[in-house]
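Hello again, I could really use a second opinion on something today. I've been staring at a protein lately and its backbone has me curious. Please have a think about how the structure follows from the sequence. I owe you a coffee for this, so here goes:
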Amino acid sequence: MTIDEIVHVVDGEILQGKGMENLDIKYSFAADLMSDTLFIVNRDDEPILLMTGVTNTSVIRTAAILDIPAVLVVRGKKIPQETIDLAEVNEVIMLFTKKIMFDAFGLLYQAGMRGCPWRIR
């Protein structure tokens, strides 16, 4: 599913990453605790969408460390400009929707997005 398709499905918008709308995302992972993202297993080396309510710079730092190319902030939360700027520096696509996480994930799943493989430690 491309970034453009994701934005359409969740009635969202691209805050950072214009020009990368054709990036194809195979998996999504939802977490508000950035430590939970350490459980992601990217076996296929496919691009992942991280769905979260976290709006501070830690979400971008986590995405950059784990090579996650796209972050979708849910619940209509205001995203500080500092976070958007850091996303640009790290080439992380920053998306936004007013939908709650449950609805956004459900809509994406219905449209063909799958949950990212993960592991229990």
Q: What stands out?
A: The two ends are 29 Å apart (CA to CA). The chain has one domain: 3-115. The chain has a mean pLDDT of 90. Helices lie at 3-9, 57-65, 81-89, 101-110.
